[in-house]
Amino acid sequence: MKNLRIRYFIVLIIIIFLGIISRKIDFIPLCFGDFLYAVMIYILVRFVLIQHKPIQAAILSLLICYSIELFQLYQADWIIVLRKTLFGRYVLGQGFLWTDLVAYLFGVAFAFITERIILKKLLI
């Protein structure tokens, strides 16, 4: 299990790097960054809750992503100030978009399916 956690951590770092790079390159659509954000959340949930079933991680990941997106509708002064920081911009986002919800769904589904395929091949 420790070996699997190390693999999740390495993948997590790679996904974070790709997500940051995707925001710096103009020709990459913004929804790709949201897709990677959902993949990152899934990997992070799997890293922390490694003993749980992958479907549980997928559902929890979607709930986290959707909650953060819906939280962007909240516009109190203190949260606006927080969202202007690097941490706030990357973690909390800047504005609500319905398309982000779709990108999160595809990102979590991609991570879930990819993990199932990879783990199946590793265990055979």
From TrEMBL:
Keywords associated with the record: Membrane, Transmembrane, Transmembrane helix
Short name of one Pfam family: DUF2809
Entry superkingdom: Bacteria
Annotated transmembrane regions: 5-21, 27-45, 57-75, 95-114
Name the record gives this protein: DUF2809 domain-containing protein
Organism of provenance: Flavobacterium calami
